[in-house]
Amino acid sequence: MPYTLHRGDALTALAGIPDNSVDAVITDPPYNSGGRTSSERTGRSARAKYTSADAEHDLANFPGENRDQRSYGFWLTLLLTESYRATVESGTALVFTDWRQLPTTTDAMQAAGWTWRGIASWHKPVSRPQKGRLKQSCEYIVWGTKGPVDANRNPVYLPGLYTASQPRKGRVHITQKPVEVMQELVKICPPGGTVLDPFTGSGTTGVAALREGRQFIGVELSAHYADIAEARLHNALTQDDFELAGPEE
Amino acid sequence: MPYTLHRGDALTALAGIPDNSVDAVITDPPYNSGGRTSSERTGRSARAKYTSADAEHDLANFPGENRDQRSYGFWLTLLLTESYRATVESGTALVFTDWRQLPTTTDAMQAAGWTWRGIASWHKPVSRPQKGRLKQSCEYIVWGTKGPVDANRNPVYLPGLYTASQPRKGRVHITQKPVEVMQELVKICPPGGTVLDPFTGSGTTGVAALREGRQFIGVELSAHYADIAEARLHNALTQDDFELAGPEE
DNA sequence: CCTTGCGATGAATCCATAT
DNA sequence: GATATGGATTCATCGCAAG
Questions:
Q1: How far is CA A91 from CA A16, A86, A114, A214, in A?
Q2: Cβ contact, residue pair A119, B130, below 8 Å
């Protein structure tokens, strides 16, 4: 089976994954961001924080958006430590973050043992303009490796900037990533290797991995999204991901 | 006189600038990056670190590239603290950094009292691809304000991503910024207001400020670059910046 | 098939009001 | 008084229908 989807908590599920069994960790954890005060960040739902008041869509909320700053760093470090253990030597980690959590993410990655190698940017052309300010039109991909880079094992040249809008048609998750961006990023994993995503969500990383000929291990806490991911992963194997989430490229 | 150029050390010169006299601090401090180890960073000259071994240009070296990580953070905090004092309420700071110093820069900005507001990206399309890696094609602009944003005083909508290559023809400084990017960024300062750049270098920020109808206060330690900046600023006032640095847009 | 126009929306941000 | 919640703001971009 080219993919496995675990249902449940990320840390718990990671504990069951063997040492040195994964080639790349590619994930988009909940940011626990948004809002000026601690109560705004930890008390409000993802939907309340991140979607427009007048948006007509009715996408499900997602869990894990209630940690304060200090606890977020601690938790992310634990998570990246377990991921590090599961990863082979010279394996790679790509972790999405927003501007607020970027410094915490680079700290956590290094605290977990990874060698921090850089930052790539995902530019979203459709983003909210703001009077008297610079627009926040990018999210960031913090990346690192377990030990040295082995460029000969996987001689790819990847861009440092990815421009793509969030899917609009057939979107099933509030923070769903464009599959074309993920299809580029999974190439950091050698062909036939295994990609791990402890926060699978609607499963875009997995779909991208399967389409590009990589294997996939996912973990998702929410039963709602685990069901969706399961269906999308299944469809990706039959080259037919169109039923549930619409054409994505 | 719409511009003033101080010659000497940034911290010393900032001490002489009155409280609440500046509307925006826009600067590109030496990054003290490049090189994985402390000795690689502090022992090599800026030229050796930031230019290819076979580059044919003969740009002067620049000082201030010999601090270790901890000392860099401390020094940048001092600098941003003095800049904060010199800035009016609701004034803005834009600080360039590379990926390595990004977390240190956001820490220093907040330690100095600024409210950190976000990160913008400068994308350099012409950058070296690297085998087995994601390209480092962006530098970052960490920005913040002294207290609340006053959007009504300066109702501009600025992008979060700037794409432009480093000047090639007529480049006079190793890390010279494209003037078209700086002309966008100086708009964060209200028209007729004053822009401060404690690391003037060849003066691109000043040229951009003058072209956009802002006043400029610069500081430059190196006599070589102070001379160049002086000439470029003078020429900018006569709408003729082409002699010394070539066409830049 | 290409062009034009209309409508919807964003991992935002802030403030007024309610508890 | 501190915290929680709802709503208004804002425009480049993009999907979609009409011409």
A1: 19, 10, 10, 14
A2: no
Provide the pLDDT for residue A238.
Answer: 86
Give me the CA B187–C1' C1 separation in Å, rounded: 42
Contact B70, B129 (CB under 8 A): no
Domains of chain B and any CATH numbers: 3-245 (3.40.50.150)
**pLDDT tens digits, chain A, 249 residues: what are they?**
799 999 999 999 999 999 999 999 999 999 998 777 777 888 888 888 888 777 878 888 888 888 888 899 999 999 999 999 999 999 999 999 999 999 999 999 999 999 999 999 999 999 988 999 999 999 999 999 999 999 999 999 999 999 999 888 888 999 999 999 999 999 999 999 999 999 999 999 999 999 999 999 999 999 999 999 999 999 999 875 444 444 443
> Which protein residue has its CA closest to C1' of D10?
A129
pTM of model > 0.90: yes
User: Which residues of A fall within a CB distance of 8 Å from B123?
Assistant: 121, 123, 160-161
Cβ-Cβ pairs closer than 8 A, A with B, add up to 123
Residue type, A226: A
Measured CA to CA, the distance from residue B202 to residue B39 in angstroms comes to 28
How far apart CA B214 and CA B195 sit, in angstroms, is 7
Contact A141 B157 (CB under 8 A): no
Structure tokens at B19: 């409280």
* Antiparallel, parallel or unpaired: β B22-27 and B194-197: parallel
A30: distance to nearest CA of chain B, Å? 19
